[in-house]
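Hey, I was hoping to borrow your eyes for a little while. A protein chain has come my way and I'm curious about its shape. Take your time with it, there's no hurry, and the full record follows here:
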Amino acid sequence: MKRNATAVWNGSGKEGHGHLTTQSTVLTDTQYSFSSRFENGIGTNPEELVAAAHAGCFSMKLSFILGAAGFTPDRIETKAVITLEEGSITNSHLVVTATVPGIDADGFEAAVVNAAANCPISKLYNCAITHEAVLA
């Protein structure tokens, strides 16, 4: 399986602007710029997209791990916070809250640690991956 996205950038790094389009067209000519990346401008940015990818991938991996252990989650909500420092992503912090009938706190924590280490996006990263886990 292969997936793709296209970025088009026009102009200089600070004054220019760009657009992102994904294969699925969920993003179609979605704007990004210096302002949306490093300030509070309108549009998306690579770090926000990386955070969405990590949160989604981790949540699905956690569901698979829980299922393999005999548990079916009612809900998994994950927020990923990406830290960009001096031109490098240095951390992805996952905050997960889940409702998983029948699991105990230790079993849930073990599943979270496994998913954080083994989801495909985690394996892609070259940074620290930390987490907070709440069993609701």
Notes: The beta strands are 5-10, 17-22, 30-33, 75-85, 88-99, 128-135.
